[in-house]
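# step 3/5: fold
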Amino acid sequence: MCAPTGMPILWALASPKIGEREVLASMLQVEAGVVAGHDGILLISDKGFASQPFEKRLAEQGIELLRPSRKPERARHGEAILTKIRQLIESVNDIASFPTDDAHHADLWQWVAGFGQLAQAGVEGTGSYGYRLAQFLTGRGITVFEVN
């Protein structure tokens, strides 16, 4: 989750087996203060966040979702400018992929350090990777919480 400038506000490492909506819901639950401290949050996303129950939960937290319409839907409000906004945000943010073994935790650490000082991390605890990554992070003074 990023500010309009592209600066990450919330982020989590999660298994690709977990849906994007579930990861975001967990992040918003754990970091409820981030949402509570801002009025009129506009969350820009892709079609993967399409879900009436999910959008209702966001609205209850004061978050409006701007996403592309799915094929059976009418064009959604704000959709005309969505592509340009997403291209701008995605050009600011970096994307990285790391093997899920102990030998590459330092590579992940270096990449994350490029965004600034890390204080907390959410780790999805699938198998031993989540456990070993949590050990690595706590060994560097990072508060780790599990993201389900």
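# step 4/5: annotate
Residues 20-93 form one domain.
# step 5/5: archive (pending)
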